[in-house]
Design a protein that fits this description.
Shape: globular
Protein name: Rho GTPase protein rac1
Helix content: 25-40%
Strand content: 15-25%
Distance between the termini: 100 Å
Largest sheet: 9 strands, mixed
Number of helices: 11
Organism: Mucor velutinosus
Radius of gyration: 32 Å
Keywords: Membrane, Transmembrane, Transmembrane helix
InterPro entries: SGNH_hydro_sf
Number of strands: 21
């Protein structure tokens, strides 16, 4: 029961409590404001106004800092070289003085010999190179390298038949001055090794600051390959078309293929790829599969002028001078080219990837959406990057991995994608040399090999670099003669199967 004056005391208590709450609220607001001010003062202006992009893929387009370059493929010791004791060979001074570089054929069992070697047709033998001291030492950074430290161009040649086999050498994992390869000889004759050491100690990565002084020499011994008996003729040895069909899912499917001068190619029973001066004898059965373009397909092609040359040959628009880059038509990507039952849209990528990958990701994504949906896609980039003297191969490795990943998962997530390697080059001109040529192609091989098993089901490598042979090049350029482009297209036709 309220007594007189109780209501006044109640009102006074309420007023006191209200003031306390207001004071507490003011203190909390002041603390929050002071905390915000401290954060504003200590935070960089760029971070303060950062935000997540509205479209998640925009970060993927622009930021490649988190992209890891592909792991370089590891080399396996070929069977023909497994019994060779390279460590002993490089250190025993009774056989080698350690100063003069030399190349030689090993015995058929893989052991070293100073004598000439003899084998029969279709047999393999190990070849090796021992390099002398490095003339200058470079500071080698701990980073991936996509070609050996020393660039060596080796060709097995038979003067009697006019045949030549370009050989890709592997560097020994422990004895770094030893290089080796296994070579299968399908053609008879007496063979020697022509060797040219182009650069040492990764100098090929930055040719703009290193002189080109190749060291050329011939093998210390020779190889005699005896003719295979021919049941059809007692007087003529026959080189038959290989029975095994080329498996282009395997790396270097055309390894040990032979280029033969025309006058020495009379023993071939079936010439399929013929140039003005030589014919190509593949190490496996290679045919142009016409059926790949007989079905109704929509094909999107994105690439540089080298890929455009493949398209010209494919549709019968062959230039009169294959070594003239100016003799190339311009294709409108919105105006399809019809080849048999295939509708082809060609988009030319006319800049390098490292500096302009953002642009091409956006262009490909936008243009592909307005075109008829593709059944298959062909990519051919990297040559313009390789020609950039200031570009390191590792810069391309990272940018290409980002470009490929975006193409596979964001632009063409359901299509078969065929990736063409960069062009072969031997010699020296500005940024181009054999080492960079090998490295850029190997980056692409490594990138495809590093994909997930699911992605590998629809992404394939079109390895045209393995056809490289200096005699087929147009001078000191990346262009190849017409018959080489025909062989490249034959490989392509088999990738659609």
């Amino acid at each position: 029961m309220l007594r007189k004056g109780d209501d006044i005391m109640y009102i006074q208590q309420e007023s006191t409590c209200g003031k306390s709450r207001r004071n507490i609220l003011i203190i909390i607001i002041l603390l929050l404001c002071s905390g915000t001010y401290v954060q504003y003062v200590t935070t960089r202006r760029t971070d303060l106004f950062s935000f997540e992009p509205v479209i998640p893929s925009l970060r993927k387009i622009n930021d490649i800092s988190s992209i890891a370059p592909p792991t370089p493929l590891e080399n396996e010791m070929p069977l023909a070289c497994q019994r060779a004791d390279f460590r002993w060979l490089a250190s025993d001074r009774s056989y080698w003085d350690g100063w003069v570089s030399k190349s030689f054929f090993m015995r058929k069992d893989g052991r070293f010999t100073r004598k000439n070697v003899q084998i029969g047709q279709d047999e393999s033998v190990c070849v090796a190179v021992l390099l002398g001291p490095i003339p200058a030492v470079s500071s080698i950074k701990h980073m991936p390298h996509y070609a050996p430290s020393d660039t060596i161009i080796m060709t097995a040649k038979s003067e009697s038949t006019g045949a030549a086999i370009p050989i890709r050498l592997l560097q020994h994992d422990k004895q770094s001055n030893v290089y080796y390869a296994s070579v299968k000889f399908t053609h008879h004759g007496t063979w020697t090794l022509d060797t040219s050491v182009e650069y040492r100690s990764y100098f090929w990565e930055q040719p703009g600051i290193h002189h080109y002084r190749p060291n050329r020499f011939t093998s210390r011994n020779s190889l005699t390959v005896y003719k295979k008996p021919n049941e059809k003729s007692e007087t003529k040895a026959l080189v038959e078309q290989p029975s095994d069909v080329c498996d282009f899912t395997e790396a270097f499917a055309l390894k040990d293929s032979v280029w033969i001068r025309k006058e020495g190619a009379r023993e071939l029973d079936d010439v399929r790829f013929e140039g003005p001066h030589s014919v190509f004898s593949p190490s496996c059965r290679l045919d142009f599969d016409q059926s790949c373009f007989q079905s109704r397909l929509t094909l999107h092609i994105w690439g540089d002028h080298h890929l455009k040359r493949n398209l010209q040959h494919l549709v019968g628009d062959r230039p009169t001078d294959m070594c003239n880059q100016e003799q190339q038509p311009s294709y409108d990507i919105d105006a399809p080219i019809l080849h048999n039952m295939t509708e082809i849209h060609f988009g030319e990528i006319d800049t390098d990837i490292v500096e302009h990958h953002q642009r091409w990701k956006l262009d490909m994504q936008g243009i592909s959406r307005r075109l008829p949906e593709a059944d298959a896609v062909i990519l051919g980039v990297g040559n313009l990057d390789m020609m950039n003297m200031r570009q390191h191969p590792n810069d391309f490795a990272k940018a290409f991995m980002s470009f490929l990943d975006y193409t596979i998962h964001d632009v063409y997530p359901n299509q078969r994608i065929i990736v063409k390697t960069t062009q072969y080059f031997a010699g020296h001109t500005r940024a181009l040399n054999y080492g960079r040529s090998e490295a850029y192609a190997h980056i692409m091989r490594s990138a495809i090999a590093s994909l997930s098993e699911q992605d590998k089901q629809r992404v394939m490598l079109w390895d045209t670099h393995q056809l490289g042979y200096k005699e087929n090049a147009c001078g000191d350029s990346l262009l190849s003669h017409s018959h080489v482009v025909d062989i490249e297209n034959a490989i392509l036709s088999n990738l659609f199967i």
